[in-house]
């Protein structure tokens, strides 16, 4: 946190100088987004089956009436009793966005490995309304690069974020997008993992606008402060 002070004119000059850098970053981000849209598509050949509030659903079913689908890969192992705190942090921002995405012909769903009944109970506890389905019994999570065997975790051999650097858990976070053609063919168009997910967390984006920022420098790990939304009072 800066210790220096400034007069109004000095503050304005410093802010205008920073604004030039922010605008350059915005333009660079726009250019990168265009390159992202130009990525080649990968056809999905597997008939994945998910379990949700309407019973069994295929990946095609998850699109609903839309030609695009965004999937949040939420860390919730098959034998876990609670969802990942960090994924829960991100999920707190999901309610309500499905309506806006639908207006742009895009569906949204959260997918996890835990049984649907476990997901539904945790969803109710957290007060969320977004659609959440289970991929239990499917290879979907693994094929999308967000699931690893215990042996891979121990050996550090799992491929995450397109790098063979391993991941410290059997489940990992991510976001994937898909397209569906008029003939029903489904294509994987993009996935993002790791720090690439930061831009999708409005709480972090708001903290980045403050003088202290995320203020995580002195913690044992960056999100050591984080709790599930219903655990802050009990942790105080």
What does this structure look like?
The relative contact order is 0.15. 33% of the residues lie in helices and 17% in strands. It has helices at 8-37, 59-62, 85-91, 97-102, 116-126, 140-143, 150-155, 202-207, 232-235, and strands at residues 42-43, 49-52, 55-58, 68-73, 106-112, 132-134, 174-180, 186-192. A six-stranded mixed beta sheet has the order 1-8-7-4-5-6. The protein has a two-stranded antiparallel sheet with strand order 2-3. With 236 residues, it is α/β, with parallel strands linked by helices. The model has no long low-confidence stretch (mean pLDDT 95). The protein is built from nine helices and eight strands.
Sheet with the most strands, sense and barrel status: 6 strands, mixed
Extract low-pLDDT stretches.
none
**Strand percent estimate:** 15-25%
For the secondary structure, the number of strands is 8
Spatial separation of the terminal alpha carbons: 25 Å
Tally of helical segments? 9
Please give the order of strands in the largest beta sheet.
Answer: 1-8-7-4-5-6
Percent of residues in helices comes to 25-40%
Helix and strand sequence = HEEEHEHHEHEHHEEHH
Task: Assign an overall shape.
Answer: globular
- What is the CA-atom radius of gyration, in angstroms? 20 Å
Mean of all residue-level pLDDT scores: 95
Q: Please identify the structural class as seen in this structure.
A: alpha/beta
């Amino acid at each position: 946190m800066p210790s220096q002070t400034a007069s109004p004119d000095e503050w304005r000059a410093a802010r205008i100088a920073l604004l030039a850098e922010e605008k350059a970053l915005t333009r660079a981000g726009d250019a990168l987004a265009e390159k992202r849209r130009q990525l080649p598509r990968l056809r999905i050949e597997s008939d994945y089956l998910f379990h949700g509030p309407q019973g069994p659903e295929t990946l095609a079913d998850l699109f609903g009436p839309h030609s695009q689908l965004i999937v949040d890969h939420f860390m919730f192992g098959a034998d876990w009793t609670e969802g990942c705190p960090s994924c829960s942090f991100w999920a707190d921002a999901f309610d309500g966005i499905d309506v806006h995405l639908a207006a742009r012909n895009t569906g949204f769903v959260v997918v996890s490995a835990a049984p649907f009944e476990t997901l539904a109970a945790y969803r109710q506890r957290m007060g969320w309304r977004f659609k959440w389905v289970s991929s239990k019994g499917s290879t979907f999570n693994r094929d999308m690069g967000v699931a690893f065997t215990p042996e891979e975790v121990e050996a550090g051999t799992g491929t995450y974020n397109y790098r063979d650097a391993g991941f410290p858990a059997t489940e990992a976070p991510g976001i994937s997008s898909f397209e569906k053609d008029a003939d029903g063919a489904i294509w994987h168009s993009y996935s993002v993992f790791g720090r690439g997910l930061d831009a999708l967390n409005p709480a972090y984006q708001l903290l980045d606008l403050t003088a202290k920022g995320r203020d995580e420098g002195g913690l044992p790990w960056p999100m050591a402060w984080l709790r599930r939304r219903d655990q802050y009072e009990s942790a105080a």
